[in-house]
Amino acid sequence: MSLPPMRRRELFAGAALTLAVIPAARAATARIVIDDYAFQPMELRIAAGTAVTWENRDSSPHNVVSSATPRVFRSRTMGTGEGFSFTFAEPGTYRYFCSLHPHMQAVVMVT
Amino acid sequence: MDEPTRRDTLECMLWAGTGLLWSVVGGVPRASLIGTAEAATAAAAGFTFAQVSDSHLGFATPLYNDVAGTTAEALRALGSSTQRPSLVLHTGDVTHLSKAAEFDAAQQIFGGSGLEMRYVPGEHDVIDDDGRAFLERFGRGAGPGGWSSFDAGGIHFIGLNNVVNLQAGGLGQIGAAQLAFLEADLRGRSASQPIVVFAHIPLWTIHAPWGWGTEDSEQAMRLLARFGSVTVLNGHIHQIIQKVEGHVAFHTARSTAFPQPAPGSAPSPGPIRNLPADRLRSVLGVTRVSRVEGNRPLAIIDTPLGA
Q: What stretches pass through the bilayer (chain B) (predicted)?
């Protein structure tokens, strides 16, 4: 199973025992924060099967909408403190934007 | 800088209700401070209307903690002034999150004002339903697309919806169906009739990196080009910016809720966070317009509410 760098660091830092009890099939996760009218990070690289969670910390509402046709994912609009998750099963380049503020654009690269 | 106290804030909010009186002199809007002799003269001329914008009911931060209060204050001031407008246009973002409770609050404040209101949606009013709930309550005269036109005081008013179907990296969008409506609506109309177009996102590009413009506004402007007096009123950017181009006067209104930074002056268009309390009165407000018959020179003057 391939893990994103952050997850891998956590595993190496932990005790061998911890590593042993993590089920091999457990999905990796990653997080994107929305604040100040921007997605952070704007470019996220993850392994296929990773569940990505977006969290809106801005005072303005935002959403997460795939730029592809047809759309791969589309969240409901998130108010402050709300979130949305999507698991990227297939490798690819997934561009997305906020359809309320379309100048807000970012990308998830899945390998 | 000291944090503003609630008392300071409320005192400042009283100033939110006062605002600019607009008179359309020779077909172009002219602004003057409400309560001045100039404003009284303009209002005495007859038909007046006002613009309110970006009330964002439901929004709250420590500094902007009473947007319902500032909005209600603005409406009360409009309704009770000697220059009571015949009509009030709301240029969108009535609510912050399109929630039923926010629409309820809007109906209480605007519906309860006793003023004749017309609305166009902002992007905050069409969240997750393309504006169906908004149009049900506030879309008087508008079809499912959210646009409409009507005549009042000799002026032809056109309300446009440029906040749906926005594309990645793009600006506001009018769309082909709405442009077709506009063309049909203007066909055969006398070029001497003053036109007021109102829509949420500016119909001229103010700052593309923040999305402050409308993708296909040029097409709309071409349809309006033959008219002798066109006034375009927008919201969205929570500050006054204006320009005159040929026979067209463009104007964006203040918010009744919170101010946004000047184009490109901050990392993002989010609310101004470090506003000194004594400047609140200078950044919130309403816009008033009155039509004055005559052949005065074209002029546009803008005056802030306070220092």
A: none
Domain B6-292 bears CATH identifier 3.60.21.10 = yes
- What is the domain count for chain A? 1
- Residue contact A102–B170, C-beta within 8 A: yes
Judged by a CB distance cut-off of 8 A, whether residue B268 touches chain A is yes
Mean pLDDT for the stretch of residues B206-228: 94
B259 touching A, CB under 8 A? no
Q: Where are the domains of chain B?
A: 6-292
Domain containing residue A91: CATH number:
2.60.40.420
Give the CA-trace dihedral at B148, B245, B233, B287, to 10 degrees: -150
Cβ of B268 within 8 Å of Cβ of A38? The answer is yes
Distances (CA, A) of B214 to B121, B131, B161, B180, B221: 15, 18, 11, 16, 11
Distance from CA of A68 to the nearest CA of B (A): 10
The three-point CA angle B206-B180-B158 to 5° equals: 60
Residue contact A102–B97, C-beta within 8 A: no
A14 located within any domain: no
Average pLDDT over residues A87-98: 97
Residue B92, chain A, CB below 8 Å: the answer is no
Q: Which residues of A touch B216 (CB under 8 A)?
A: none
Is A64 domain-assigned?
Answer: yes
Domain of residue A52: give its range.
Answer: 27-110
Look at B1-5, B22-26, B189-193 and tell me which has the smallest mean pLDDT: B1-5
pLDDT of residue B65: 86
Name the pLDDT band for A48 (thresholds 50, 70, 90).
very high
Which of these, A78, A82, A80, A110, lies nearest to A95 by C-alpha position? A110
Contact across the interface for A100 and B128, Cβ inside 8 Å: no
Q: Is A107 helix (H, G, I), strand (E, B) or coil?
A: strand
